[in-house]
Design goal:
about 180 residues; mainly alpha; three-stranded antiparallel sheet; 7 helices; 3 strands; about 5% strand
């Protein structure tokens, strides 16, 4: 099925350059050149850009497409869930049957002693949460000095890691320095 373009490719590139700030991208480079690739569609592990060139999708699993694009079973399941309850925050002690049941299933397959889960939307949020939980842990076990002064001393990071967009983990990785030089 042919894609009906709502805008010309040139228009899309100009709009991207003017209005869309890309994560971990150099803002000066963005203002000068805009997007390096504009993707139009995906199927399975493949992406297609506005010029029809295909790529293997090696980055979308970074956040949320780790089962591939165009998965009809997943789309149907998501549709059914969204008809029932599209989203429910777990802040303030709120819960919902889907989160409770998935928590139980994950606890059943996790190693012994790991029987609680914390849901996040991706690696950056997961790392930021781990950072906060470690600080909370040291406070609870009576060693608050472990979280003060050089607060990052217990964290290891690969220089080219990608799971850091929040302040806590961006500052212990090299991602900010590398991408903005």
């Amino acid at each position: 099925m042919a894609h009906k373009a709502l805008h010309t490719d040139k228009d899309l590139l100009k709009k991207d350059q003017k209005h869309f700030l890309h994560p971990t991208s150099n803002p000066k480079q963005q203002a000068k050149s805009g997007a390096s690739i504009v993707l139009r569609r995906g199927q399975g592990i493949y992406l297609e850009d506005i010029e029809g060139k295909r790529y293997i999708d090696g980055l979308s699993s970074l956040w949320n497409v780790n089962v591939g694009h165009g998965n009809k079973e997943l789309a149907q399941t998501a549709f059914e869930q969204m008809e029932t309850l599209a989203y429910a925050s777990s802040f303030k002690g709120y819960s919902n049957p889907s989160a409770i049941n998935l928590s139980e299933k994950l606890a059943e397959v996790a190693p012994n002693g790991l029987n609680s889960v914390f849901f996040t939307s991706g690696g950056s949020e997961s790392n930021d949460t781990a950072f906060k939980l470690s600080r909370f842990y040291w406070e609870q076990v009576g060693k608050p000095e472990k979280k003060k002064n050089n607060r990052f001393r217990t964290f290891l990071s690969w220089c080219d890691d990608w799971c850091a967009v929040g302040d806590a983990f961006t500052s212990v990785s090299c991602i900010f320095r590398v991408s903005h030089e």
